[in-house]
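hey so u asked for the seq, here:
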Amino acid sequence: MTKPAPSRLLYVEALFAVSTARILVFLLGIRRLGHLATATAADRSAADCATVTDIRRTIEAWGRRVPFRSKCLEQGVAAAWMLSRRRRPVTLFYGAAMIEGELKAHVWLRSGELDVIGCDNAEDYAVLSQFSNDSSS
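ran it, structure tokens below
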């Protein structure tokens, strides 16, 4: 049985979140943006795979389609806002690594034990900062 597609309203919310994140990247530093994205307290019992999957799918879909840069930072912040709004636990990680002689930065997001955005290569990066709305983290 295939899982139903996320609702249109969720796609609209995701577009707004990705667009807002892109603008705020210029206005705020990573520290202020990270705190803002994880400001709503989490309800540990609220974590669920279906919500995380739907939000990941909508954020990644917009990340490929918007006419502006929407990579790990914008997508991670947008997904953190959306999950935080739903009182889901989120931890936004900011890391760096030397890759092929260049210093690279990366952002990834987890909701409890679930990977959300940018987690595929997270182990390649040293964590510089992390922001969480989950008091048990």
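Residues 17 and 89 are 18 Å apart (CA to CA). The longest strand covers residues 102-111.
lmk if thats what u needed
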